[in-house]
Design a protein that fits this description.
Elements (H helix, E strand, L loop, with lengths): L4 H25 L13 H21 L7 H5 L19 H21 L3 H4 L2 H25 L14 H6 L10 H20 L4 H23 L5 H21 L8 E8 L2 E8 L2
Antiparallel strand pairs: 1-2
């Protein structure tokens, strides 16, 4: 049974509150990381990231709505209206691939939690925990903004082999752009690969683990295409956005001597904005 807009809004509101409280608590208790740690927490950086993430979640909730198609709308769909690059996805439909992609997203999402018990990360669990929560929530909410504002029908709805009742009951039928599964998979996989490289820069197992997770994330993207859930361009954008989130969150927490990325509030005539600068 698809969730209603009210239930989605309430669940997001609860998630946003929990996210803010957990990050606040961990920022206070974990602000004094070990001197050997490559990362640290500070109120300016984490306050800006938490604010940006909460704003993203609020925007995603505001644009969420009915994504269903009527039986008539489904029957009127023509794959000839899909651009040549994405048209091949309209021939795809696989519930097995759909379930497999969700399972692999779970693998990527659990990896940072499992890696946090390694000797060097175990002493930094608060810092790693805050960075992971920021990455996970931002990667979850960011795609929902475009899904709610860009009307793009999922490719399997063009496929006559897919059951009509499933097409009509799909509450996300109009929300193909861009792939949330791929975004989250690449965000958490890139996050894991980045922190592994910082904590264990010379360890071969760390490098191999990071590459393995990135390959797993790539598998998620392919399976979303194979399931008929997304077009290649949906997957490509999800890959770029997820990778950027997974890389930038740890980099913004680098200790002062190593950080070159600076996130700070920027005053505007009409209000405030967040600016991201690269210090050369």
């Amino acid at each position: 049974m698809p969730r209603t807009r009210n239930s989605i809004g309430k669940s997001r509101s609860t998630a946003k509150t929990a996210f803010a409280l957990i990050c606040l608590y961990l920022s206070i208790s974990g602000g004094t990381a070990d001197a050997a740690s490559p990362y640290r927490l500070d109120w300016r950086t984490d306050g800006a990231i938490v604010a940006a993430t909460l704003a993203t979640g609020a925007a995603a909730t505001a644009v969420s709505g009915n994504g269903h198609l009527s039986p008539t709308e489904v029957r009127e769909l023509s794959r000839s209206s899909v651009n040549w690059l994405d048209r091949s996805a309209t021939y795809r439909y696989s519930t097995t691939s759909d379930k497999a992609s969700s399972a692999l997203v779970g693998v990527c999402s659990l990896a940072p939690l499992l890696l946090s018990v390694t000797p060097k990360m175990r002493h930094d669990w608060q810092v790693v925990g805050v960075m992971y929560l920021e990455t996970w929530f931002l990667a979850n909410w960011a795609p929902d903004i475009s899904k709610g504002t860009i009307d793009r029908v999922r490719p399997y709805l063009y496929n006559p082999e897919a059951p009509l009742d499933e097409k009509v009951e799909d509450s996300s039928a109009r929300r193909s752009f861009y792939s949330g599964h791929t975004t989250l998979a690449f965000a958490t996989a890139t996050f894991s690969a980045t922190i592994l490289g910082d904590y264990y820069p010379t360890a071969r197992w760390a490098s191999r683990t990071g590459k393995g997770l990135l390959l797993t994330a790539a598998g998620v993207g392919y399976l979303r295409y194979a399931a008929g859930a997304h077009y290649p361009t949906d997957v490509l954008v999800g890959t770029v956005v997820g990778s950027a989130i997974g890389y930038l969150i740890p980099r913004l927490h680098r200790r002062d001597g190593d950080r070159r990325l600076i996130l700070a509030p920027q005053p505007l005539v009409s209000g405030w904005a967040l600016s991201l600068r690269w210090a050369l």
